[in-house]
Design a protein that fits this description.
Blueprint lengths: L1 H14 L9 H8 L4 H7 L4 H7 L2 H5 L6 H5 L4 H4 L4 H8 L3 E3 L4 E5 L6 E6 L4 E2 L8 E5 L7 E5 L5 E9 L4 E11 L1 E5 L2 E5 L11 E7 L4 E6 L18 E11 L6 E9 L9 E10 H6 L4 E2 L1
């Protein structure tokens, strides 16, 4: 697209007629309000008017969430003081930590809509203090650089809660999990399934509820190897996001409280060999764009 527009500019200049550079910057800015941030940045390279419009606060104000100031409040004022809206968008499109670094919020670079992730350290995990059952594993495969690894337990329960002024949207909540313990040996990723057991006997139950009485739940067996030994299991050895459900926000005020959990509390059998990384809360259609590897 950039190349064709550039050619058009050159052609009109040769013919002596008006070119793209003759379009008023205010008109270009009006058009940019209908484009995505990546499209705006690409077009900004065409000429001076396009560059000026691509830096306009009126354009980027529409790309930011209506309550973007709530996100800026997590940052030191000197990081965003006197910045233009374009630079504020750039800052907020990178993860902004809060709650002692156990939660992160950011805006999607294409749509400008709010996304959130919550670390396992920001959740209540039954037995997490007892190293006979759980360990914290440092890893580069988590955005929080650490995951909770379960060796063996009978009563499995993970609970979390977040209260935040989510902008109006439809959100999907997912758990990011991994069967097996992984490590790097000689530069290669390897997985150990020594402790992995119990997840094919009965399903895990995922639940969410909101402060305005919305509820959702789902159930899923995390491991199907015992049921299908001939074919093996695609769930082992890779990170998978398990969908809990959706909730709808109609207004950012008052803040929405979201409670979520995953449980397998049937004490007739033990289970183990599971890594719990994080929970994601993202707009549902954004989640659908990247749902490869996501199980419903």
């Amino acid at each position: 697209m950039g190349a064709s527009l550039s050619n058009l500019t050159e052609a009109t200049a040769v013919n002596g007629g008006p070119g793209l550079g003759d379009i008023p910057e205010s008109c270009v800015a009006c058009v940019f309000t209908y484009l995505t941030p990546p499209e705006i940045c690409n077009l900004a390279r065409l000429n001076r008017a396009f560059r000026g419009a691509a830096s306009s606060d009126s354009v980027w104000e529409k790309k930011l969430p209506v309550n973007y100031q709530d996100l800026l409040d997590f940052l030191p004022p000197e990081r965003y003081h006197k910045l233009c809206k374009k630079d504020i968008f750039a800052i907020l499109s990178r993860p902004v930590p809060f709650d002692d670094g156990n939660k992160e919020v950011w805006i999607d670079r294409v749509t400008g809509r709010l996304c959130m992730s919550i670390s396992a350290k920001g959740m209540a995990i039954t037995g997490i203090e007892d190293r006979r059952y759980w360990n914290w594993l440092p890893t580069e495969e988590s955005r929080f650089h650490v995951v909770a690894y379960l060796q063996q337990i009978w009563w499995f329960e993970v609970d979390g809660v977040v209260k935040f002024p989510f902008p109006a949207d439809i959100y999907t909540l997912t758990f990011r999990l991994h069967l097996g313990r992984y490590a790097k040996r000689l530069g290669r990723r390897v997985c150990n399934f020594e402790h992995t057991h119990g997840w094919a006997i009965k399903p895990v139950r995922f639940e969410l509820s909101t402060s305005d009485d919305q509820q959702a739940f789902s159930e899923c067996c995390l491991d199907e190897t015992e049921q299908d030994e001939a074919n093996g299991s695609h769930k082992r050895g890779c990170w998978i996001e398990y969908k809990v459900g959706e909730f709808v926000v109609t207004d950012s005020e008052p803040p929405t409280e979201v409670r979520f959990s995953m449980k397998q509390i049937d004490c007739t059998h033990s289970k183990g060999g599971l890594c719990v990384d994080s929970v994601f809360i993202v707009p549902s259609d954004i989640r659908d764009r990247r749902k490869r590897g996501v199980l419903k």
